[in-house]
Structures are given as structure tokens and as C-alpha cells.
Specification:
Elements (H helix, E strand, L loop, with lengths): L7 E4 L9 H16 L3 E6 L11 H11 L9 E2 L4 H13 L3 E4 L3 H10 L39 E4 L11 E5 L3 E5 L1 H4 L3 E4 L7 H11 L4 E5 L6 H11 L5 E5 L24 H12 L11 H11 L7
Parallel strand pairs: 1-2, 2-3, 9-10
Antiparallel strand pairs: 4-5, 5-8, 6-7
Helix pairs in contact: 1-8, 1-9, 3-6, 6-7
């Protein structure tokens, strides 16, 4: 694990819209954890999915962070500049026999699962059944065809059938949630690394960049906890150090779902940054923080002292 390396944390927003209350909770948590460890805090703009990122949104998010006093210790990285690094990582996985092209459409995957008796569940994912994996029995050539019979541009997938644990479970320890495990091959199946539209998948980009930036601690919202086993498996496959993980509480909308743009999340009020920070601190369970008007730097210093997940060995 990351215990012997100098602490490096990061906040990695996707610039699909301005930061909102939920985004600030994740940003503040990662900043506080870095400061409580006496470490470095980085910002990485995860704009790898370019069509979903309006021009100028990344720059807006950086201004919002600065307005809240959350300043990075190095210039930000932009994933849109990292194509060569992702291509090199994929080439390594292909050369090692760990990644392969997949021609399956979403409809074909669902049909293959239904043929095996699989039933979708509410909020559940769609595990990949391995239909294009080299050596898999019963690979159907028609899965690689579109509606008119034309060959599909392939996605690229990472094999999950070569996991090391004897019980088939991938285990990890979350600093807040405790002991965790998942049967990755059963619950998720082979992970997409590059999509059929040519865009890099989040899982590959985040793992490659965390490795390149020397990230030792990933602090992010609890909704991303189920990404952790996929990323740990990919870290193993690429020979990268494993960071520690801390998944924080979420800001919930009125319907009980995670706050997002889709259910009414409003952009941060840049005229009242201290109020926004106090609301984020309440979600994180920070106690005994000063009230009243005071400089942001003083409030943030007190928040570091109140951080409940203290440095770990």
C-alpha cells in the first residue's frame, strides 16, 4: 500500500457543469485530508469525455475552488492532454494478453445475459458476460454486427477472469467504510478501457493518472466506492502502487438520491464561499468549527484540526 510514500491527494472533477454542493464536499474532504497529513493536494480536470464537457467549464471549476480557498499545490492536469499515456497503457495490457477488442453492442450483451437467466435489477449494472473474450466458449459472430450487418468498431476490455485471490473476491480496506470486497468478474465482468466511440473510459484514465501523479490517497464520494475494485484490478495489471481509499458521505437531494445536475443541484454561490464550506463541513461531520464571519484561511485551518479521519500509518 501507500504507507511509505509521501502523501499525495487529489480532487478530480468532471467539467460537465459548475461545481455544486456535492462537488464541494468531495473537494473539501480531499483538501482537508491532504492538509491533515501534511501532504500535497492536486487538481485534475477529468475532461476525457469531451462531448459532455462544455467549453470553459473546467476553468470555471478552478475559479470556484480558488474562491473557496482550495488551492492546489501544482498546476492542474487536463485529461484531454493525456491521450498518449492512455494509449501506452492500453498497448501494455494488450501485449500482456490482458485486454482485447469487444464488438458487442449493448443489446447483444443484454441478450446474452438473458439467455443465461440474468434479470436486471433497479440501480444495478449490466455485467459483461465475456462473449468476445478470447477463448470464451460460445462466442457468437453475430454479436459483432450492427442492425444492418455492418461490423462494429470495437471497444477494448480488461480481462477479469485472471484475478489472483483464491476465493475470487477482490478485498480492500476503506478508511471510512471498513473492510470491503467484491466478486469483480461476476458483478461487473470485463471492464471497458476504451469505448467504441474512441473515447477513453474513466477507469483507465483515472488509474493511469493517479499512478503518474503519485497519488497515495483517493478521497471521494461514497457513490464511487463500487469503482474501487475495478481500479485496484487495473492497478495490479499495470504494476502500479495501490493508493488508500476514503469514501465520504454524500449530499442528497429531496428524493433521497445523490445530488446532481439531473435532480436540481445548483452551482456554488461564489459570493458566499464560507457558507458553502460550512454546509460541506456539516455533511462531513466536522464538529466544533468557529461560527461568525472570519477569514477563509482561518476557518480552513480550524477545519483541518477538526478533520475526523486523522492521519494513518
Amino acid at each position: 500500500m501507500a504507507a511509505s510514500r509521501p502523501y499525495v491527494g487529489r480532487f478530480a472533477p468532471s467539467p460537465t457543469g459548475p461545481l455544486h454542493a456535492g462537488s464541494l464536499v468531495a473537494a473539501l474532504a480531499s483538501w482537508l485530508d491532504a492538509r491533515a497529513h501534511g501532504g500535497r493536494w492536486l487538481v485534475r480536470v477529468e475532461d476525457v469525455d469531451g462531448p459532455r464537457c462544455p467549453p470553459g467549464t473546467g476553468e470555471l471549476q478552478l475559479r470556484q475552488l480558488a474562491r473557496c480557498g482550495l488551492l492546489a499545490d501544482a498546476p492542474p492536469w487536463w485529461q484531454s492532454d493525456r491521450d498518449a499515456a492512455y494509449q501506452e497503457a492500453l498497448a501494455r495490457l494488450v501485449a500482456a494478453g490482458l485486454a482485447y477488442p469487444c464488438h458487442c453492442s449493448r443489446r447483444a450483451i443484454e441478450q446474452a445475459l438473458q439467455a443465461r437467466g440474468w434479470q436486471p435489477t433497479r440501480h444495478g449494472g449490466t455485467p459483461y458476460p465475456g462473449t468476445c473474450r478470447p477463448g470464451s466458449p460460445g462466442v457468437v459472430a453475430a454479436l459483432g454486427k450492427g442492425e444492418a450487418g455492418a461490423a462494429r468498431i470495437p471497444a477494448w476490455r480488461l480481462r477479469t477472469d485472471r484475478l489472483q485471490p483464491a476465493d475470487g473476491l477482490l478485498h480492500w480496506q476503506d478508511r471510512r467504510l471498513g473492510s470491503q470486497h467484491q466478486d469483480l468478474a461476476l458483478a461487473v465482468g470485463d471492464v471497458v478501457l476504451r469505448r467504441a466511440d474512441g473515447l477513453w473510459a474513466y477507469q483507465l484514465a483515472v488509474v493511469v493518472d493517479d499512478g503518474a501523479q503519485g497519488v497515495t490517497d483517493v478521497v471521494r464520494g461514497e457513490d464511487l466506492a463500487d469503482n474501487t475494485p475495478r481500479q485496484i484490478h487495473l492497478q495490479h495489471c499495470l504494476g502500479l502502487p495501490l493508493p488508500r481509499y476514503l469514501h465520504t458521505p454524500l449530499v442528497l437531494a429531496a428524493d433521497g438520491q445523490k445530488l446532481s445536475k439531473q435532480n436540481g443541484a445548483q452551482a456554488l454561490d461564489l459570493d458566499r464561499p464560507l457558507l458553502a464550506l460550512r454546509q460541506a463541513a456539516a455533511v462531513l461531520g466536522l464538529q466544533g468549527l468557529p461560527t461568525g464571519e472570519l477569514p477563509l484561511a482561518d476557518w480552513l485551518a480550524a477545519a483541518v484540526q477538526a478533520w475526523p479521519w486523522r492521519p494513518v500509518a
